[in-house]
Amino acid sequence: MKPCIVGIGGAGGSMLKPFLQNLDLNLMIHDFAGNDRLTYGDVKGIWLESQTADVEKQKDHYYGNSIKGQYPGYLICHGGVNEDSSTNTFLKNKYGFDLKAQGYDRRAEYLKGLFEIFELDENLKRLCSHEFGGYDNALSDYMWKIGIRPLTIISTGGSTSVKDETVSSAKSKRSKPLPELLRCFLKPRNLNSDQNTKRCDCILFLASLGGGTGTGFINPISSAVRLDEPIFPIFALGMLTEKGEDSPQTSEGQRDLAAVIALYDLLTKESGKGIDGLILMDGQILKERFENYSAMDGMIYEAMKPLLDIRNYPGDEQQDEAQAFRRVLWDRDAKNPMEQEDAIQKRLFPPVLIPCYYTQPDWNGDLKSLVEGALGKKGHVSSLGLDGRLFPCDPEKAERALVFIRGFFELTEIKKAVMDRTGLSEGKIKVYRKLGDSRSEDVLILLRNPYGGEIGAHKDKGTLEWRFHDIIAESIEYIEKNEMNILSYHSYKPLTKEYMWKYFYQSGGIKDQLYKSLKYLESGRKPFFCRELRIFGESAKLSQAEEQIMVSTNLEEQITCISRREAERLLMEKGIIH
Ligand SMILES: Nc1nc2c(ncn2[C@@H]2O[C@H](COP(=O)(O)OP(=O)(O)OP(=O)(O)O)[C@@H](O)[C@H]2O)c(=O)[nH]1
Ligand SMILES: [Mg+2]
């Protein structure tokens, strides 16, 4: 597979850099079009950022402005929105959201709310469509159509291999032309037809889970992609934020909440509506092994190389094309691609994939040590950074293992080594053999959903249940102790505060759902996030009269309304009214 790697937010941009480095020294001395640079696996990429200051302060000027045709490029998420945009004025006045916000202060709920409004508020939809030439959303459509799509096979109508007809007809119905307003910004790129083969057949998002920008944009951009191509493979690699404060002193609780909201949303979007798989890494494990972010980012790149390697082992089938890989991720034991595709459409939640990576010198040749280096020794649940598991988990709980291996090994031997360690049957192990560079041999094993089925596993340090229990409990505590901070974000209008209050604190809201998730984790239930939850969704809907009061400027009326709702809530809690 050849992904278009999309780094989002500060961490996403840094994680993306090593993937886009030019491997061909000769090309560096020529004035070659950047798009032709030789990257590992021939990948392409783009950095999406909401803070203009962050792209301007790059010391190494690694990323140029993609709108000016520079590559590798960055794209400012709100670059298509004018200062005097009527859509933005409406949004600011009614809700207090700003399309041109410079970063989101580690708040995943900001972008979540913002994008939901675009789906629900008919007036906003009309304004947006009118101002942005048919775009449903001024941010996600811009990032997808201007930033990402030109780097993919979709830009020329080259499509995915299964159900092409369905895809094309969906496309012709839904795909919209670039609005003139945005077209004039674009310098034509050197993407003629013979370059089509060089384009990407899937998307891989890179972002930290724990910020606002990175975590907040994955779902909305995926929705924009899905409107164009329902089965285009979309994967995400999320880095869970480390423990303690981060550099601009955001507390662990706040970042954990951002991470949990993002994880909840990514993992409760049904098949065909969001991503096809979430690769999870733990920043805490990487921080214990590496001194700084740059070393961590180097490691992430190294660990993903076996997946990106396009040199298949001679004689092995070409099985690592992105669409095939997508079907394997969702695999419901169906026999052929069409059956698998039907199974995928059956409202499943996307899988979590835990990457486990290990490398050793090629003279070693010992398969057992390679597999154990990645997965840890049998019975060692709590290694936390001492072996190749990049997120805490127990490999014996995995549903499946996808093995990307570079070096000269027998297929049956590889399967046997993985079966011995995981207890999986042969049919649940998929092996992708690659040639590698002959100086070292390495393996990346993606474990699908390695958790569940055991009561009390959350108490074992080093299990996936334990790590999730920890961040969910931290998030609940943060929600309970920081109502003011969460609801009084400086720009929110009363209407937004009211909806945010319901989302966080009302019975059935995210706090309640997270309490349930803790119980599910404790009892070994799978999955532990079970129901999609919206801030502005139907269940939270205010009546028209209430909305009217909330958007009015009469403070007294607003206070009366809020007090009445608060009193109602208390009476309901005490069972006095129902
Ligand atoms: N791997 C890696 N992680 C980083 C890096 N910089 C920050 N982080 C982690 O990412 C978290 C914050 O994510 P950012 O990417 O900075 O946040 P963002 O997506 O830009 O979101 P906002 O700035 O809140 O809008 C930090 O708390 C760190 O845990 C980096 O260079 N590499
Ligand atoms: Mg940022």
Main sheet: strand order: 3-4-2-1-5-6-7-8-11-9-10
Q: Segments where pLDDT lies below 50 for 5+ residues?
A: 28-33, 158-194
The computed structural class is alpha/beta
Largest sheet: 11 strands, mixed
Count up the domains. 2
Can you give a write-up of this model?
The radius of gyration is 24 Å and the shape is globular. Helix 1 (9-20) packs across helix 13 and helix 11 packs across helix 18. It is α/β, with parallel strands linked by helices and 578 residues long. The protein has 23 helices and 11 strands. The protein has helices spanning 9-20, 25-29, 52-56, 86-94, 108-120, 122-131, 140-148, 164-174, 180-183, 213-228, 252-267, 283-289, 293-308, 322-330, 337-344, 367-375, 411-422, 464-481, 483-487, 494-505, 510-523, 544-551, 555-573; strands at 3-8, 44-49, 64-65, 73-76, 202-209, 234-240, 277-282, 352-361, 400-406, 429-434, 440-448. An 11-stranded mixed β-sheet has the order 3-4-2-1-5-6-7-8-11-9-10, sandwiched between helices. The model is unreliable at 28-33 and 158-194 (pLDDT under 50). 46% of the residues are buried. It has 2 domains: 3-311, Tubulin/FtsZ, GTPase domain (Rossmann fold); 351-448, Tubulin/FtsZ, C-terminal domain (60s Ribosomal Protein L30, Chain: A). The site of guanosine-5'-triphosphate has 27 residues, from helix 1, strand 5, helix 10 and helix 13.
